[in-house]
Design brief:
The complex is a heterodimer of chains A (256) and B (223).
Chain A: E1 5-13, E2 22-31, H1 37-50, E3 73-74, E4 77-78, E5 100-104, E6 113-115, E7 118-119, H2 122-129, H3 151-161, H4 168-172, H5 179-191, H6 193-196, H7 199-212, H8 223-227, H9 235-249
Parallel strand pairs in A: 1-5
Antiparallel strand pairs in A: 1-2, 3-4, 3-5, 6-7
Helix pairs in contact in A: 2-7, 3-5, 5-7, 5-9, 7-9
Chain B: H1 5-8, H2 10-36, H3 45-56, H4 58-87, H5 103-106, H6 108-136, H7 142-151, H8 155-183, H9 192-218
The chains are: A alpha+beta (256), B mainly alpha (223).
Chain lengths: 256, 223
């Protein structure tokens, strides 16, 4: 696949977590508008390998917008200029021939750079491990009608569950806050009967871990929901705030 | 309360910001209502009665202490949060697109600092002389004082400071009013659009009434 787009890329290169990085300029030519952004990077890396240079390290896995691995901050936008797509779903037709594109890794103290555009997002895993699940032994699947769930709640929980944990919210937030990510899981489980039993414990523990990881706090600018590739709403953050208030004031549960 | 995270967590700090913010908003309602009395244009007679009540009533005096405590908590918590938030992003982006949020939502610290400077001038102009007069037991005409500040020889300093102060207040409220409800966990499909509308109206009307006072004196509409 080749095309006729010529672009100038400015990509963040950083040898490892301890070293100082910088933006390096790479011209790329014959790019097809039908390529995805990552395929364009594959072309560039091929070119670098042929020239005997170190290829650019970047995260990717499924390349169909569900794994949440691709994490590029493109021209000042998490996952690039288009709404509700991940970097792998962004196509070169979203750019113009001759464009200069600046590509940086997510910037957050809780997401340290591993190499080039790859950041360590295990802080998200540690938050989920603190309660982003239900520990009820369910046995065989119950008949669905045994657990009536109002349609409104089911829809809200489903929308929150669409979070792929890519970290675009943290990357976008001026405070590098993880509130949208954490609240999506808290809200999803607090809305469903299966999640209610552990709701207080969950929100206290997950928030405590979120703070420990060094994420900032929420200023309600709403930028996260604009850049979220899955359209997670900040209404989830309000649900988490309410759950936290309830867990702290009403319940006797303590963070563990 | 046995849960100490409730006092130290990031969410708890936001609860303090929201609760003190709403408390300060309630103060604005009282302040703007009393100020509006000058527009009766009765030479400040009614206004001075209300101002006198606010300066002498014991319950108001006690509430004033609460007001200062609330204000200091709001400032202190904002300072702590700002420091923590700065630490959360040690390396900045080379390119950051800002279209995803409003400038005033990102500038609450700057707007708040401008408000604080304005507040220092404002307390020096009105609050301090009132305290001195109350302590000395002398008669104090707040209306004349207003006139002196806004039409006296330093009007070209004070009027712009007051206008800038209330414009900062307007933008601070435009974000702060709805944001307080969100922080306290209140985001509801039925009521949030109403809260946002009231917030926008409040953020325009209240600063506008405040701004009209110095302008009305300066333009000679009030005597």
């Amino acid at each position: 696949m080749s095309g006729n787009m010529n672009l100038t890329l400015k990509v963040w290169r950083q040898k490892n977590g301890g070293s100082k990085g910088e933006l390096v300029t790479y011209p790329v030519s014959d790019i097809s508008p039908d390529m995805s952004f990552l395929e364009m990077f594959d072309v560039l890396n091929d070119q670098l390998v042929t020239e005997g240079k170190e290829p650019i390290a970047f995260d990717h896995d499924c390349r169909e917008g569900i794994c949440g691995m691709c994490s590029m901050h493109i021209n000042g936008h998490a996952h690039g200029p288009k709404d509700q797509v991940t970097t792998c779903q962004l196509h070169m037709r979203s750019f113009k021939d001759g464009d200069t594109i600046v590509v940086e890794p997510w910037r957050a103290a809780a997401f340290p750079v591993v190499k080039d555009l790859v950041v360590d997002r295990s802080s998200f895993d540690r938050i989920i491990a603190k309660g982003g699940f239900i520990s009820v032994n369910t046995g065989n699947a119950k008949d669905a009608n045994n657990l009536p769930i109002p349609k409104v709640d089911a829809d809200k929980a489903f929308e929150a569950a669409a979070c792929i944990g890519c970290g675009a919210c943290v990357a976008t937030c001026k405070n590098s806050s993880a509130m949208l990510f954490v609240s999506a899981k808290v809200a999803q489980l607090s809305l469903l009967p299966q999640g209610k039993a552990e709701a207080s414990q969950r929100v206290l523990n997950m928030v405590a871990q979120m703070d420990e990881e060094g994420f900032g706090s929420c200023t309600n600018t709403g930028a996260c929901e604009v850049e979220c590739p899955k359209g997670i709403s900040i209404q989830n953050i309000a649900i988490m705030n309410k759950e936290y208030l309830k867990a702290s004031v009403v319940s006797e549960q303590e963070a563990q | 309360m046995s849960n100490k995270e409730f006092l130290t967590s990031s969410l708890a700090k936001k609860f303090v910001m929201a609760a003190t913010g709403l408390f300060l908003i309630s103060f604005l309602v009282v302040h703007v209502s009393i100020n509006s009395l000058i527009f009766l244009n009765d030479g400040g007679e009614t206004f001075n009665v209300a101002a006198g009540f606010m300066a002498h009533n014991i319950i108001i005096r006690i509430m004033e202490i609460g007001l200062f405590v609330g204000l200091l908590m709001h400032i202190y918590q904002a300072w702590i949060l700002t420091q923590e938030n700065k630490k959360a992003r040690p390396v900045q982006y080379a390119v950051q697109n800002e279209t995803a949020s409003k400038w005033y939502s990102r500038s609450m610290g700057i707007l708040g600092s401008l408000l604080l400077i304005f507040l220092a001038v404002h307390l020096y102009n009105f609050w301090y002389p009132t305290k001195v007069a109350v302590a000395a037991g002398t008669e104090h005409n707040t209306y004349n004082e207003l006139k002196e500040v806004f039409t006296g020889e330093l009007w070209f300093v004070f009027v712009p400071v007051y206008i800038l102060g209330v414009v900062s207040l307007g933008y601070h409220l435009l974000h702060g009013f709805p944001s307080a409800f969100q922080s306290l966990g209140f985001n509801h499909k039925k009521y949030t659009p109403l809260i946002n509308a009231i917030g926008t109206g409040f953020s325009i009307i209240v600063p506008l009434i405040f701004a009209l006072m110095p302008l009305a004196f300066l333009l000679g509409i009030l005597d």
